[in-house]
Specification:
The complex is a heterodimer of chains A (515) and B (327).
Chain A lengths: L5 E10 L2 E11 L4 E5 L6 H8 L7 E6 L7 H7 L1 E4 L11 H5 L13 H16 L1 E3 L10 H14 L4 E5 L7 H16 L3 E6 L2 H7 L2 E6 L2 E7 L5 H8 L22 E8 L8 E6 L3 E6 L5 H8 L11 E3 L5 E3 L3 H6 L2 E5 L2 H5 L6 H6 L15 H14 L16 H14 L4 E5 L7 H16 L3 E5 L12 E6 L2 E7 L5 H8 L5 H4 L8
Parallel strand pairs in A: 3-8, 3-9, 5-7, 7-8, 13-18, 13-19, 16-17, 17-18
Antiparallel strand pairs in A: 1-2, 1-4, 9-10, 11-12, 11-14, 14-15, 19-20
Chain B lengths: L3 E3 L12 H17 L6 H26 L9 H16 L7 H26 L3 H19 L23 H16 L3 H11 L1 H6 L4 H27 L10 H11 L11 H20 L6 H23 L8
Helix pairs in contact in B: 1-11, 2-6, 2-9, 2-10, 2-11, 3-4, 3-5, 3-9, 3-10, 4-5, 4-9, 6-9, 7-9, 10-11, 11-12
The chains are: A alpha/beta (515), B mainly alpha (327).
Amino acid sequence: MLRGEIVVRDLHKSFGETKALDGCSFSASAGEVHAIVGENGSGKSTLAKILSGVLHPDSGEVSVLGVMPRSPIEARRLGIATIFQEILVADEASVAANLFVGADGLWARNARPGPRRRQTAEIMRRLTGVEIDPDAPVGQLPLSVKQWIVIGRAILANPKVLILDESSAALDLDATIRLHQEIRRLRDEGVCVIIVTHRIAELVRITDRATILRDGQTVATLPKAEITEKNLMALMTPQSRQRAARAAQIAPSSSERARVLHASALRLTAVAEPFDFTLGKGEIVGVTGLDGQGQDGFIKALAGIRPAASGLPVIDNGANGEASIGSLADADRLGIAYVSGDRKRDGIFPQLSIYENLALGLYRRNLAFGGWIRRVPIVGAFKAEVVRLSIKTGAASNKITSLSGGNQQKVLIGRAFAALPRVIVLNDPARGVDLGTKRELYEELRKFAAGGGSVVYLSSEIEEFIGFADRVDVFRDDRLSRSLAGAEIDEQPILAAMFGHAPTEVVFETGETVG
Amino acid sequence: MSAAVLRTRRFGLGGTYYGVAVGLFVVLLVISAVCGPHLFTLDGAAGAIIVVVPLVLAAMALTPIALVGRGSVDLAIGPLIGFLNVTLVQVLIANDVTSPVAVIAWVIAVGVAYQLLQGAIIVFVRVAPIIVTLSGYLVLSGVNLVIMPKPSGSVPDWMSDWGSGTTVFTPVLLVLVIGLVAWLLFTRTAFYQHLRLTGADERMAYASGVQTNLVRLGAHAIGGFFAGLAALAYTGLISSGDPTQGSNYTLSAITALVLGGTSIGGGRGGIIGSAVGALDMYLITYVLSTFNFGIVSGFVTQLAFGTVLVVALLSNIFLTGGKATAR
């Protein structure tokens, strides 16, 4: 029987076609530090949002201190304080105002400004180790201090339940230790602390119990003695997942391929370590990492969207030698196409037709005298892509939003293919796409590679790479930390690399040797 | 713990959001002293106060609504002042209800009620604020003419000498002082903090347990209170009912608001800036009137407003290190 301050039973929550939580249950009690652990997309942030009243479950039972919170205001009244993943501060307001937001009634202050300013100075000194003016506008402060303001806000609320959702991301080691001191102090005072994280090493030190989520389901709840990195990893990794069939022949290794694109001494941020990257002709390279480890910035630098802090990717340009990619115009001219998985923001034009959404990448290549667009070749290309990708459309003039997410994504991939690129860069294109469409997408990309094209494919879901990618580059701390190929392209080795472990720790369980 | 200090600049009273407006005010005062010293006589000052107070209060009425964010600019403020004026004259006074209590209660209650309606549409129907207030502008402009087709009517006896402007300390000035004191008291409430934080980052405020919908409604109600005071001063100024003149306050008040450094994006600014901005507007008109532009003076004044506004915004951007105030 589940008992405690927090009880969650058989929780379900979907966003459109994506099931974020699919039968999650756990309980936590006062005076306990309870961790919620899982891979990217395992539903742990959704769970935190439901516990704090921001989201409402589709079905299932939630009870925090005996009640199900229906809004952040109610959650606050119940004594729940949440530190969200995003650093929510008002840049225009002072440190003190940011710390005490929500602490008052609608009209009346619960404390006078004077004592509050002293309290602000005191808690910021304790948390950051630095003197901070309580009246300073928050916009001037560095990110790490903003993170402390958010933490301080939760502590000052004197919560009975404290929820931390990836709250140490912006903190360095020293700061993390101070955060742990605060967490232990609160726990000893009888607070129920929930930590949502994928930072395993950190969690092993601080947590009393850990619940592991996988694909929105609770896999296990471990007591303190069993919380080891090895156990957590094994539970986070799906055991029974269907492995896609492996490619029959062994793909040639990178060194045997003609080099198409390479980058040397690339730095993603001014302080990150430099690294090299090579992409061969006909090669499919997977790019992955835990959230925010620099993989996104890397792939955008490759596509010319946002240059890296230093160093430019260089593409082989036939008879003209080599050319560097510093802008979107360069990328377009040199045959690099980009497909985003964030269709709403970076992909579709929701007000335009299916035809226009696919064809607009072609307009510039099909201009006649005076800027007239030659329609005939574009209509031809549109039809060809619709057939090739088997896009299920109604009339081409229908709005793109009339299509399902998977078919919208196909239109975007059609847009990229229609530009006849040499390199296609995909940023998590399978997000929110059904399994059948995913398979078709892999098939098309393999054909593209077989025809001499090169593919860079970012995904946070490891199983996408298995049987698909020739190589997987894992990012950690804003640099390419490990390249995996051959038999290493499997759940456990990739997961280990994402968490920064040596490959030998885990690979042997499957009986395969490291190539 | 080490006693290292993180160096920061402050804002608020020692800060810069209305610095440009105050600087402009000083410059304009100097120019006025040279070009039109009449302003500094008892008569001149008294006349100026009568004319400027309705604009100052109108700009103050816009301030809480702008502070609460979402790009809320209350375009309806001018016709609302006109509406309060014509209903006061045509409904109350024409029926011999003339006691000061009834008159003041009427303008404030109707002002607040109208703003609550506007706020409720913005909050619950989720229409963009600018569309709602534009509709309000158009509807009220029409309604004013239906209620009172042409300027007419009179004010109660106790109000009849408000517009004469013979002394500096008139009831009109008292209305302004009451408004300023009310605002000062308001800034000491938690509600004011909620209002600013909601404007600065609505998501943060909501997630931290601020009742953002109530705060937005409240901001409108406070705007309605100041609109009522503005209508009172305006009625005193013209000593009659006028269905169209009030509408002119919309553009002047918005100019004053922006000139005063309040961000239309929310969270930044305050009533002092709006008040000084309105004073600047008056002084610009006054200084220009001392030159003889004859028939084109109206155009020159508008040209000057536009130019000053752009220059003020640019200087604000440079002075505050690249952050535009009118996003």
